[in-house]
Amino acid sequence: MSTDNTTDASTETESKCGASEARSASESASGTAASEAETDTASKCGASSASSSTETTPDTGDDSASKCGASSSSPSSSSSSSSCGASSSSESDEEEVGSTVDDFDAEPGRLIAVGLGPGQPEGMTARARSALLDAEHIVGYTTYVDLLPDEITDGADDIYDTPMCGEVSRTEEAIDRALAGNDVAIIGSGDPNVYALAGLALEIIESKGATATMLDFDVVPGVPAAQSCAARVGAPLVNDTVSISLSDHLTDMPTIESRLHAAAKEGFTITIYNPWSRKRRDNYEKCCEILLEHRDPETPVGVVHAAGREDEQVEIVELGELPELGETDLVDMTTTLLVGNEDTYVWDDRMVTPRGYETKYDY
């Protein structure tokens, strides 16, 4: 699934990787596959010397130290506290970047944003697999790191992963590792350009006074959730379509509602990301209300839970049934909804949205 890493009650301390001034903070960003009360850790990694601080909950487990400016280190699969050389650190807000390009003496390495696709190894593109096999360091959300094949994790010099809601700190960690001279891959499910971290990486690179060219920044696309989930239910998205996330952590709900109205009344098929979490059930209910205002209650809707994973569930329901599914296990942050338009129909247990060929050809 595409990345949008939200959670209902998470705490994080910021990861900094090479700052002269680094800080910790708690802040949630956007997400897929929500979890409760998870904790990120702090890292420092890039100039002369620094001490690193960690803050964990009893459920977080052991922190491991990663040395992201080093040429060799052992892979870790936990929330890492890395010490890689900053001159000093102090607490502040995560919204501010902790280091600039001037804090690094090494020749910059490379940063690549890699989309893993729907989750299973066979859903990863050959280019993504090759990029990850070549990467010295891999940075990502713990759930996505756990999806990586052993050949990739075993071949990496170091793996830095954090639990839910560490998007900003995790992305800065990846950038600072690259500025410290490493070839780094930052990973996410789905595609890096769909509710994911490719854009955030470029924003942070710019804020540090670095350039994308300096880091040879590249994006390796993956199969987005909309496409992988559509494939589970037939052919619902073959005509004009839009995607809308119900997560209001980064986009306010009035804006989301306005977009839902606009898409629903114009007859687009609609992919709904991040439909439900315990603190956002009202968003789901409002979405159903808006869709039913513009669409027939019998409109087909594909409901795909955890596409490509062990607990995958797939159902095709009518739009009028959607509100009651909000209180079931079928709809959560790993679920994607595929809402048909006025032409979409169900045939042989598959959703079909005509492209329009029938108006020009006899078949």
List keywords for this structure.
single chain; about 375 residues; alpha/beta; 5-stranded parallel sheet; 5-stranded mixed sheet; about 25% helix; about 15% strand
N-to-C order of helices and strands: EHEHHEHEHEHEEHEHEEHEEE
Number of helices: 9
Kindly provide the radius of gyration, computed on alpha-carbon positions and rounded to a whole number of angstroms.
21 Å
Structural class: alpha/beta
Number of strands: 13
The amount of helix comes to 10-25%
**What gross morphology would you assign?**
elongated
Kindly describe this structure.
With about 375 residues, the protein is an alpha/beta fold. The protein is about 25% helix and about 15% strand. It has nine helices and 13 strands. Strands 3-2-4-1-5 form a five-stranded parallel sheet, with helices on both faces. Strands 7-8-11-9-10 form a five-stranded mixed sheet, with helices on both faces. Strands 6-13-12 form a three-stranded mixed sheet. Helix 4 (about 165-180) packs across helix 5 (about 200-205) and helix 7 runs parallel beside helix 8. The longest helix has 14 residues, at about 280-295. The protein is elongated and about 60 Å long. It starts with about 110 loop residues before the first strand and ends in an 11-residue tail after the last strand. Residues about 1-95 have low confidence and may be disordered.
